[in-house]
Amino acid sequence: MKDLSNATLTDLPSSVARASYDRAKVKTGIVHLGIGAFHRAHMAAYVDVCLSDDPNWGICGVSLRSAATRDALEPQDGLYTLGIQSSHGLSPRIIGAITDLIVGPDEPSRLSDALLSPDVKIVSLTVTEKGYCHDPATGRLNPDHADIQHDLNTAGFPRSAIGWLVYGLLERRAKGLEPYTILSCDNLPANGKTLRQVLLDYLALKAPDDVSWLDNALACPSSMVDRIVPATTDEDRAEIARALGVKDAWPVMAEPFSQFVVEDSFPLGRPAWESHGVTMTENVEPFEHMKLRMLNGSHSTLAYLGYLAGYETVADTVADPAFRHLIHDLMTHEIMPTLSMPDDVDLPAYRDALLERFSNTALKHRTWQIAMDGSQKLPQRLLGTITDRLSSGPSIDRLLLGVAAWMRYASGTDEHGKPIDVRDPLADRFRTIASESDGTAQDLATRFLALDSIFGRELPANAAFRNGVTAHLDRLIRDGAHATVAAAV
Ligand code: CS2
């Protein structure tokens, strides 16, 4: 079987969708840091449909760590398949928006050239929560982060996304080029504002005299990004090869739903996204809150409880009526009351649509995948909602169950005594907590709550919060996730 590439595009069956622009005319206008599955299934697809109107927005995709995506896509001329999976089957679409691929650690001078190109107007990023090298509880730079320490202490090329963004801005300034607009596409609250603060914190240490220049010059719009994109499996590759008749080394699989809400602040211009399904707005914050609290808060709760209960995927977890009931009530009674949305947003309909999306059995979204990096996710997904609710008094019981389930999971042993492969920047700390603890809920909860980069200082001092989490954790340890969820609904 041949490989996907410009040369084999004409061999594809007509059932495979693709936009009609001439790839040879596409110029790079965007550098994207973190060219993983999510970007390729989300923003790159929104850019792809704009290229027919304006070919100046091709994407140079950058990996700051692994070479795997570059190695897979380079021989394919940057082409890949977006496989939309629903109960009606698979709809494949070819995305051609990637014009170039760079692996930062291998080719730092090419990355530097890309950032300094006058054609580049936007640098966007999906580097996941931990890529911001910040303290999730406060949203400020963590200056002790190993990559930040490296970048602060080198006159050469940086390593972190934060270091690269600032490096590019300073070098552009030296060359008399305007600063690019930086678009964060990660699941962080006020992601543009948060990124801006982290960049300023970094510059204050690296080149303090330039802080006020950057503060004035920088456009860092916020965005809300949403599409469920599970990690690609070999089964997916085989399914795509059957549909295309050619081999794609790294397709991405996603649900049909997609949403992109972007703060309209792009001084050097942007693709005509508003003509292609993107909501361009002045104020993204209500949408971010809605998405992070409703979708991601439910997702993390389902991931920890579902994993502990032995469910492999989110769809398997919500097929259990007790778990579905819990999530429905969590959203209805504990999350929705904290959201204030524009009049045309129907929150009950949004909740019901989420439950449908979680039930998509064509999508094998593993609970283990979502459970990753909990230390970076908990604050914006569950703790912010809890803080809002605590100040107004009403029930937080289901939210606390999510936090307790994270502790039970992060302690590293499943309900059958088998080790859990806990992936998290704080995984070593969790292992120490588990090994030093006497194993009681009281002791474990006290140790986890002392992680102030996650919980800050105020929440753990609140008796209702502490006692509620501890009571749920106790039940999870004694009775397991199934019985705990059944008792909670
Ligand atoms: C998930 C998200 O892995 C996770 O933590 O909750 O990736 C989720 O699928 C996306 O935010 C959906 O837009």
Describe the fold and architecture.
The structure is a single chain. With 489 residues, the protein is an alpha/beta fold. It has two domains: 9-281, Rossmann fold, CATH 3.40.50.720; 285-488, N-(1-d-carboxylethyl)-l-norvaline Dehydrogenase, domain 2. The protein has 21 helices and 14 strands. It has helices at 37-41, 43-48, 68-73, 108-115, 146-152, 161-174, 191-206, 211-217, 234-244, 285-308, 314-318, 321-335, 347-358, 367-371, 374-392, 397-410, 427-436, 441-449, 452-455, 458-461, 463-488, and strands at residues 17-18, 28-33, 58-63, 80-86, 89-95, 98-103, 122-125, 134-135, 140-141, 181-184, 223-226, 252-254, 259-263, 279-281. Helix 10 (285-308) crosses helix 16 (397-410). The longest helix is centred in the C-terminal third of the chain and has 26 residues, at 463-488. It is globular, with a radius of gyration of 23 Å. It starts with 16 loop residues before the first strand and ends with a helix. Bound molecules: D-mannonic acid. D-mannonic acid (CS2) binds next to helix 10 and helix 14. D-mannonic acid binds at residues 187, 226-228, 295-296, 299, 369-370.
Summarize the structure.
With 489 residues, the protein is an alpha/beta fold.
